[in-house]
C-alpha cells in the first residue's frame, strides 16, 4: 500500500488538491446562499379583523434587513376596466391633526419583524378618490390588488410585493377573499422595472 502511494505520490497529491478545492467550492456555495437568504426581502400583506370593507390591512417586513416603504398602490378591476392609484398618503387624517410628519404618510422605515397598519379597504378607496380616482362604488369592484414598493440598503433596485383579493357580494354584504395564501414577492427584473416606471409616472 505504502509502496503504491510513494510510487504515485503525484497522483495522490493531485487528488487531495481536487478534494480540497471541491470542499471549498461547496463551502463557498453554502456561504453565498446564506448571504442571499439574509439579503432577500420578504414583504407580507395580510388582513386583520373582519373580512369586509372594515378589514385592517397590515404590511410586515419578514426579511432580515430593514426596508423603507416608498409607495403603496391600489389597483381595482371593474366591468369598465382597471384603475390604479397611490394610497401611501393618509388623506383621511386632517393636516392639523398630524402630531408628527410620520402620521401624514405610510412611507418610512420598517425594521425586521415590524409591521404597519395601512388602513381599511374603505380608507384605501377614499385615498384613491382623493388622488383623482373615479367615483367607483365598492359593489362594482370585482378584484382589488395592493402593491407595496420598498428599497433596502442591500439592493439598488426596488423590492416589491403584491396581493390580490376578490370582492364577493352576499346580499348587501361585501367581503374580501384572498386569491393566494401570501403576498407574491416581485423579484424579476422586468416586473420591478414596470413598478418603477409606474412610480416615475406618478400613477
The count of domains is 2
CATH topology of the largest domain, by name, is: Immunoglobulin-like
Series of H and E elements: HHEEEEEEHEEEEH
Task: Give start-end ranges of low-pLDDT stretches.
Answer: none
**How many strands, what sense, and barrel or not for the largest sheet?**
7 strands, antiparallel
Strand content: 35-45%
Radius of gyration over C-alpha positions, nearest whole angstrom: 25 Å
Distance between the termini: 76 Å
Q: What would you call the shape?
A: elongated
Second CATH tier, the architecture of the largest domain? Sandwich
Tell me the number of helical segments per DSSP (H or I, 4 or more residues long): 4
Count the strands?
10
Q: How would you classify the helix and strand content by structural class?
A: alpha+beta
Q: What percentage of residues falls in helices of 4 or more residues?
A: 25-40%
CATH class of the largest domain: Mainly Beta
Average pLDDT figure? 82
Amino acid at each position: 500500500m505504502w509502496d503504491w502511494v510513494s510510487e504515485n505520490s503525484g497522483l495522490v497529491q493531485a487528488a487531495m488538491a481536487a478534494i480540497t478545492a471541491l470542499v471549498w467550492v461547496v463551502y463557498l456555495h453554502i456561504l453565498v446562499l446564506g448571504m442571499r437568504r439574509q439579503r432577500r426581502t420578504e414583504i407580507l400583506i395580510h388582513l386583520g379583523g373582519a373580512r369586509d370593507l372594515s378589514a385592517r390591512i397590515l404590511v410586515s417586513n419578514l426579511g432580515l434587513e430593514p426596508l423603507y416603504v416608498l409607495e403603496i398602490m391600489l389597483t381595482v378591476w371593474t366591468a369598465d376596466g382597471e384603475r390604479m392609484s397611490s394610497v401611501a398618503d393618509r388623506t383621511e387624517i386632517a393636516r392639523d391633526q398630524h402630531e408628527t410628519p410620520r402620521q401624514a404618510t405610510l412611507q418610512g422605515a420598517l425594521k425586521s419583524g415590524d409591521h404597519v397598519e395601512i388602513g381599511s379597504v374603505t380608507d384605501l378607496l377614499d385615498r384613491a378618490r382623493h388622488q383623482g380616482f373615479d367615483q367607483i362604488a365598492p359593489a362594482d369592484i370585482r378584484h382589488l390588488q395592493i402593491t407595496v414598493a420598498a428599497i433596502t440598503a442591500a439592493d439598488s433596485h426596488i423590492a416589491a410585493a403584491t396581493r390580490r383579493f376578490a370582492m364577493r357580494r352576499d346580499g348587501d354584504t361585501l367581503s374580501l377573499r384572498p386569491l393566494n395564501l401570501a403576498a407574491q414577492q416581485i423579484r424579476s427584473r422586468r416586473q420591478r422595472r414596470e413598478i418603477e416606471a409606474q412610480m416615475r409616472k406618478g400613477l
